[in-house]
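Name: SDR family oxidoreductase
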Amino acid sequence: MSERPARRPAVVTGASSGIGAATAQTLAATGYPVALGARRIERCQEVAARIHAHGGEAVVHPLDLTDPASVEAFAQAVTDDLGTVEVVVSNAGRVAPGVVHEVDAATFAAELDLNLLGAHRLVRAFVPGMVERRRGDVVFVSSDVAVRSRPFMSAYTAAKWGLEGMAHAMQMELEGTGVRASIVRPGPTSSEMGSDWDAVEGGRTIEAWVRFGQARHSSFLPPEAVAGAIAAIVNAPPGTHLNLVEVTPEAPVEDR
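Structure predicted for SDR family oxidoreductase:
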């Protein structure tokens, strides 16, 4: 195992809001130089400005994980800015509501492309170098839908099942290389994901969650809670591998 360097540049995708933005700020606050990637470059710049205001180091580059050329350009720009990347947080994702037999194949495929193939493109860009250096961390942000399917989220569910399958295979393939592949599996989290849904579709989806016992209480996780779990994974000392961390919102304390 290679000695861990004091400076560990980290990449965070989907860093324009939610879990990605919180993760970038959490890692920067603990000394990681961070590279923020997303399509909404202006939002990433706002996050980077907050990091700079607190004395952290951050750079921003546009990233579209559905475009191989964009991923390659991002990886090169980040390396030029920060040096060798030691940590990759694969967080970018999108979910759209719909019934399996009604969603057209192109829409279904587009969601798989971003949520699953996009993660693989990120792996291809950064992990070979990690294996060569015999060190590094890759963290995949999954979802509880990977083990508890939710109605009207079929493409997202299929993508997260596939993402975890890929990550578990990587864990075996990377054993002995010094590179750790980990999964964070959040439950319902307060973020912008779903904010673009039609109100009727959104309401139907929530009602179905209640019907099938998938909304036992109304609490959601703050994105910072998931960011804290990610930080714990990458801060684990060499020789320790947090393979899978599931983070769920605690129910409100009931009055008796």
